[in-house]
Specification:
alpha+beta; Immunoglobulin-like; eight-stranded mixed beta sheet
């Protein structure tokens, strides 16, 4: 959740930071009083810090070294005495003072130019609003400080600014004073009673629409809720307010966590690198995770807003009250909070669909990361640029580890462990070891082997064999685990892997499971702790069909020789929603990969009747979860198909998947139209609840297949026209179909959409993404034209993500064009972005870093772009680290 602008010449290799080198701070800061004087072009920052030598550190006479990044030092006083240049050493990264007292007060004045801060890190001014982003190392761009998470201080912040331009002056904690001062200016003073690390500091100054409400905690305290959004967007904040109240209520029930300040504030900012930031009491959000109304936001937007707002709020305890000792422990707060927000979404939205979507995200982002040159453990051993470790491994795999831990020790002991963790370490900066140790204390289990999940990179692969003995009426599952070598880790050790299983009889009923001396149950969690292990069930009257890895109980790849009949059976009967969906995915994936081979061999492509019939039966089943049905209709993505291949054949993958979609549409046309008509007629006025969402999701899943049915073009156009100004979910679903039709209606719809919504930045971003995803031959040329237009802005991360990231990360067929044009385009974009915002450039370059997964011709073209960028003498450390790791890691 941070930015970096540290620049290194290409010839100089940046130094790495290592976990093994961690040392406790030489000095601690107990209090810091900040004064911000904000003007249009410049910001003056004065800090007054009470500093003392850390008594737990026996190293005497250590100098005080305060971090900084591109700061302009105006003055410095030690215990009221003005220092001269001979009293300190000012280098590129540190302000160093020798021979300081054991306890002292340090006062520093710096000058900032926030308008020039295009990296959006530290204090910046964008679109007329002052804002901060301090995680991970942005505070050192505001003032000189011990900018590390294990230095916790109490903050007081006074802000002065022009009252007319900046009527709202916000910071952490509680507002203790405010008023007017001379020359049309005013001030606000905030005090945060809780100690916090510098990365949780926040400041916002601007003019907003304000939505207010309140929440009464479980102990009866009243908390003021305030959401600040850009002027004119006040009517789009109601769902965010609903989301925060739901999250606060859920956290009290599920984890016993009550909010601790008098006020909770949220601010929506249009120019923001990340999704959101959990600053104490003042959460700052990207506008796309706050603003919503039916006319401008889709069902998925509403869902993401719920999840992200909950995530940032949950950080108040898992990250703020208990924080990280160092950045190697990042998953301690992020993995844990992702697990908490996923649990919230499952409880408040759809348990089945939320779990499926979390796993899809894991498989399409984290699994490739674990298999590529950028693989790293959930607790890394080293890094060059900490910004590069806000990854799917730290977040999503970290969350899966905690889900496994809950499965292994049980939900009740896990909750007790969480309670003890928060009580034991409240107000402290701790480690992953501290967290696991707490769970050991509560559960009585030795989790030594389980800890290896944090230090070992790579995705384990499970191979399952079974044997049924009719005479003995026993059924044995033998599971073997294997983890492929990763960069820097050739030797792997067995992990503790929970494998949740069920057995189905010939009628699809759950069988009672008898395993060793354990109580009889219909579902069992098998604890795999060795390389190869056999589990024998007794009292099994007939050969069962195994339902393996239920609810995706571990982040692994599963290999079991399911026959097509088995998958069809599970797709119809499995009581575990995830595994029912998984059976359909496995069946479709098997068909797709067979078609890829047929395409490569120039053989005729045919679609098996069994797959068509399976979808037909699924769509006709009554009493189903419509939201789940919509997801069950979706095919595995091109990205996921590629991950199953040793050499990714982009062309064959695309052609095979398009063939299946087209033939499913044609052969299921009558059923699709019936389902579409049924739920389209029931749509009515937009409502956000799971029943209504399910109807829209299933209806629009059917509509998506109409793209392959020219005779249904009128249906798509009619939905587009009817929903254009009232229902963005239906509008965008129709526009997505029309954008892939090479017809006059395509351009008409795109023009109509833009003309209607050109003044809404978030909706325009959807328009950009739709075009970036087009399957039509001129997709790249269209993207280039949009980049050159006034609609696009390199300085706005949302625009970059909507257009450039969508094209390079989701439109794989056109990005990986054989002539390398997609690679050249991305390379040029990354270099432009690196000069403006290194964290964004590092995000954008990732599609090129897996160059070794493709054919030799594409490898040469992709490597050329990486090597060319590496020659830039002004390359950022963010980009440098990813380029070098990609090139070094893929040469083995």
């Amino acid at each position: 959740m941070s930015e970096s602008t540290s620049i290194q010449p290409a010839a100089v290799k940046p130094e790495a930071t290592y976990l093994k080198d961690y040392q406790v701070p030489f000095y601690l800061i107990d209090e810091i009083d900040l004064q911000f004087d904000l003007y249009e072009e410049v910001a003056w920052v004065s800090s007054r810090m009470k500093i003392r030598r850390n008594r737990s550190d026996n190293r005497k006479n250590k100098p005080l070294a305060l971090n900084h990044d591109e700061l302009i030092l105006e003055s410095i006083k030690l215990d009221g005495q003005l220092l001269t240049k001979s009293d300190y050493i000012l280098s590129k990264q540190y302000l160093t003072l020798h021979n300081v007292p054991d306890c002292f007060t340090l006062e520093i004045v710096t000058k900032n130019y926030p308008e020039k801060n295009t990296a959006l890190s530290g204090l910046y001014r964008s679109s007329g609003t002052y804002c901060t982003q301090c995680e991970a190392e942005g505070f050192r761009r505001i003032t000189f400080y011990l900018d590390h998470p294990d230095v916790l201080a109490r903050y007081s912040t006074t802000i002065t600014a022009d009252k007319k331009r900046y009527p709202y002056l916000l910071s952490n904690g509680n507002l203790v004073a405010s008023g007017e001062i001379e020359q049309g200016r005013h001030f606000a003073k905030w005090e945060d009673p809780f100690k916090k690390p510098s990365y949780l500091f926040a400041l916002v100054a601007g003019d907003f629409d304000l939505l207010e409400d309140q929440f009464v905690t479980q102990s009866g305290r009243e908390v003021a809720l305030r959401i600040y959004v850009e002027k004119g967007a006040g009517d789009q904040a109601a769902h965010a307010m609903y989301a925060i109240k739901e999250a606060m209520r859920w956290d009290e029930i599920a984890f016993g966590r009550e909010y601790d300040l008098d006020i909770y504030m949220m601010v929506a900012i249009g120019d923001f690198n990340m999704g959101a930031m959990e600053n104490k009491g003042l959460n700052i959000f990207n506008t796309k995770y706050v603003l919503a109304k039916p006319e401008t936001a889709t069902d998925d937007d509403y869902i993401h807003i719920m999840s992200v707002i909950a995530h940032e709020y949950f950080h108040n305890w898992s990250g703020n009250r208990v924080t990280c000792r160092d950045w190697f422990q990042l998953s301690l707060k992020e993995g844990l909070t992702i697990f908490r927000d996923q649990s919230f979404s499952e409880d408040t939205l759809s348990r089945a669909v939320m779990r499926i979507r979390d796993v899809v995200d894991l498989r399409e982002t984290q699994f490739p990361e674990d298999a590529g040159p950028l693989a790293h453990p959930v607790r890394p051993d080293s890094y060059i640029e900490i910004n590069n470790f806000y990854t799917a491994t730290i977040y999503n795999k970290g969350a899966e580890i905690l889900r496994m831990l809950q499965t292994i020790i049980g939900k009740t002991p896990f909750r007790k462990g969480m309670d003890l963790y928060f009580a034991r370490y409240d107000g402290k900066a701790v480690t992953i070891e501290d967290f696991i140790g707490t769970m050991e204390d509560v559960s009585g289990m030795d989790l030594t082997q389980f800890r290896l999940w944090y230090s070992q990179a790579g995705t384990p692969q499970l191979t399952v064999e079974d044997h049924y003995d009719q005479d003995q009426q026993t059924y044995a599952l033998t599971i073997t685990q294997h983890c492929p070598k990763t960069q820097g880790q050739a030797d792997k050790v067995p992990l503790h892997i929970p494998v949740c299983v069920g057995l189905l009889d010939a009628k699809g009923n759950e069988m009672a499971l008898h395993l060793d001396q354990e109580p009889v149950a219909f579902e069992k969690v098998l604890s795999l702790t060795t390389l190869r292990q056999t589990f024998k069930f007794t009292g099994v009257p007939d050969r069962p069909t195994p339902s393996l890895l239920r609810n995706f109980s571990a982040p692994v790849k599963l290999n079991y020789p399911y026959q097509e009949a088995d998958l069809l059976f599970l797709f119809k009967h499995d009581s575990d929603p995830f595994n029912r969906w998984e059976a359909g995915q496995r069946l479709a994936l098997r068909v797709l990969l067979k078609l890829v081979q047929d395409y490569q061999r120039k053989q005729q492509l045919t679609l098996p009747d069994e797959l068509v019939q399976a979808y037909d039966v699924m769509l006709k089943q009554d009493g189903q979860d419509l939201f789940l049905q919509a997801d069950m209709l979706a095919l595995p993505s091109e990205r996921y198909m590629g991950e199953q291949m040793e050499v990714v054949d982009v062309d064959a993958i695309h052609q095979a998947r398009e063939f299946v979609l087209e033939n499913l549409a044609k052969r299921l046309r009558v059923t699709l139209k019936e389902v579409y008509d049924r739920y389209h007629d029931q749509s009515g006025q937009y409502q956000f609840n799971m029943e209504a969402v399910g109807r829209r999701q299933l209806k629009n899943a059917c509509l998506a297949l109409f793209a392959y049915l020219p005779e249904e073009a009128a249906t798509v156009i009619r939905q587009f026209e009817n929903a254009l100004t009232s229902n963005m979910t239906d509008t965008l679903s129709a526009l997505r179909v029309l954008s892939n039709m090479d017809s006059v209606e395509r351009q008409w719809a795109l023009d109509m959409f833009y003309e209607t919504w050109q003044h809404d930045a978030l909706v325009v971003n959807k328009w950009l993404s739709i075009q970036a995803m087009s399957r039509l031959p001129f997709a790249l040329q269209q993207v280039k034209s949009l980049v050159a237009s006034d609609v696009f802005d390199f300085k706005n991360p949302n625009k970059v993500y909507a257009l450039i990231a969508t094209f390079s990360q989701q439109n794989l067929f056109h990005f990986h064009a054989a002539d390398g044009s997609g690679y050249i385009f991305l390379g040029e974009m990354v270099q432009i972005l690196d000069a403006l915002n290194p964290q964004v450039s590092a995000r954008m370059v990732k599609p090129l870093t897996t160059w070794n997964r493709y054919d030799k011709e594409r490898q040469v073209l992709m490597r050329h772009q990486l090597e060319r960028m590496l020659q830039d003498k002004k390359i950022s450390t963010d980009l440098y680290e990813l380029l070098t790791k990609s090139l070094e890691g893929c040469t083995a």
